[in-house]
Write a structure and sequence with these properties.
heterodimer; A: 624 residues; B: 167 residues; 2 domains; 4-stranded antiparallel sheet; 8 strands
Amino acid sequence: MIKILAVNCFSLCICSNIFATETASEDLNRVVDPRYGTILFEYYQGNYQAALTLQAIAEYKSPLAHQGVAPELLKGGMSLKYGLLSQAHDIFKTLLNSAEDQTILSAAWFYTGKMHYQAEDFKSAAAALSQVTDALALKFSDEFHYMKAQLAIKNNDEIGYKNEKSQISAQHDYHEYIEHNALLKQLVLNDAVDTNIEKITQQNTNLMQKKKLTAEMLALQNRSYLALGFAFIKQGDNQNAIKTFKHISMKSHLIEPALLGYGWALNNMHEYDKARNVLAQLTSSEILTPYVQEALLVQTYSYQQQGDLQAAQHKLIISINRFEEYKAELSQKLVTLNKLSWRQIYDDIREFESSKNNALGLNEILSGQGFQSNLAQLELLYALKQQLKTQLQQIGSFKALLDDKAMNTQIRLHALKKKTLQTQVDYLLEKRNGLMSKVNNAIKKQDAEAFFTPSQLSLKKRLDSTKVVLAQLPEGKFVDFESRVSRVQGRLIWQAHQDFSARSWQAKKDIKHLDNFMAQLQKQKSQLFKSIDTAQDMSDELSRIKKIQLRVDTHFNKNNHIINRLETKLKKAFITYYAQRKTDLEQAIVQAQLLNIQMQDQSFSKTISPEHELDKQSSSSETL
Amino acid sequence: MKFKLLTLLMMLSFHSYAEQELSIKDEIAALKKQVIALNRDLFILEEDLLYPASTQVAVYLAMDVGQYFQLDSIELKIDGNSTTHYLYTEKQLNALYKGGVQRLYLGNVSQGEHEITAFFIGTGPNKREYKRATTAKFIKTQDAKAIELKIVDSTGKEQAEFLVSEL
């Protein structure tokens, strides 16, 4: 039992210290690349998943511009802390083969040692840690010596333990953990308990009173006292056992075995009434846990030892009745458990954790470390499932965004084609063609009037209208006017003919300019259309989204598959546990019934008078 | 009876299906790795879709020591528009003190000249409330823009300095 407690405490220590380490050394933490800084920002907050994601993003884009292999070392450390052991193993292996810097090498050996330590491969852990040199960064120092001290405890190397312990910072919590483990180790080694029992008690008391206790330290303290109490009973030192059990908190989940131990110790000291009173605190519980069951039998034993067989028998009958009742309850529980879905059982567990009581009476099984570890795994899977769900939602929103973008581009394209570009270009082209044919015709027909300037055109209009007016007036009265108009008109035409060649050349030149401009416009138009066509093509993004979605779906299904396996396993564990409990109870009933018969015989023998006894003897001799 | 007692106490520990557990552990590790890879791909996709380099601007915050100024919150404005208002937890501040860099803002701005203003709110020397602002101009080009805000202790002046620089 002590060994189990020691293992439990040991695992507790490992888990509690996972977050205590810092990774790179001081100089390595000077941030050169802000991306590396963002990774550190998450890492220092203990958000290992976020930090690893940021590092994966950075690696995908370009190598991190930071001192050498420091990011790799950090990644290895984070992988270890996030439970990606094989990834961590690969990283450290590569680092150990490639790095030359002693600080990096020492850190890599330290992490390799830690990895083996967490996997409870203590031999490999010791081998890796022995490779660590003085170049190890200061930040790793405490954890390094802590692990070495733990390994020394395991190897019963007291000198090594003391040496490593002395190198841990004075104020570090590691002292409490390793002192506690050293104490438990001493308890496991019976000889040490014999000689150091007082010292250990004092050490344990001092150790736990050092500072304000956290919930974790309190749990550790209670476990320690429980182990110590039973060690005292084993040594026959019931007085000290009682003192030790009294230290255990009434709120602790270890109070049941503590009360049982307390009762046993009193019983051993022949303090039967007191023992029964202590055990009554346990037997008054509504749920018949193994400790309550045992307490009922101890109470019977206590009466028996006191010589009060009648009371012992009475107690035994009460116990048998309670056992029978609970056996029926267990049968009912088994039926219920088979019918319940895992979700309902899980809700009951949650209820238990919040109120420390539940309908199924799961207290016993839930305190098991193996079950708790499975439950932690299941909760992690639920969290991963939630993440995958979020990823699917994100993919959905990206898809919607792309659809929206594609639609908007389409609308914009149409608008541009119709209103901005196509119409204008076509219109200009038409105009240009009209102008061109006009110029060509004028040149062909030598029509100088076609090249009139705007002022010439206006003058021609005025002359024409004057001629119309003169035609309406009496003939011969305005001869002078008519000849002046004809003169001006003739002059106008003469001037136009004079300018014809220059103007026709100018017109051709202007049209050429216009053609160049039109060609440029056409080019711009095609470029714009091309870019719009490119912008509209989002098939690459859509294909990326599709691939990611496929991966998310695959892993979502995988996750569900593991969840189902684990849920089935846990449910089976519940059923197996209760079935086993029922079998144990049946055996306890048979034993109690046998004891009852024995006690009946004893009390019957006592009630027979000596005369009767003699008669009985003579009659038997007669028979013989 | 004593033997039975010890057997019962052994129920403190519940062990089962060690091999299967190991395999589940491996599968969970593989799944964790995949979730990280998916997060990475989604993040890159998001950046490509929502924050293309031609418009992307990222603002980072770094700290050096923090003896003369205890940061509580930061407000960030770009061209007078409030973009971020961030309140820090103790955990985040510790991460910054240790050398972490926070990406305070990721957004889009048009190409050309812009103005960034950061308001640092916290506790200064003698535990007095302290609010400081710093402004800088930057030109956004075709490439992604990264700006760093830095809180540095100036031992000479015995107060904190708030710097803005382009990365």
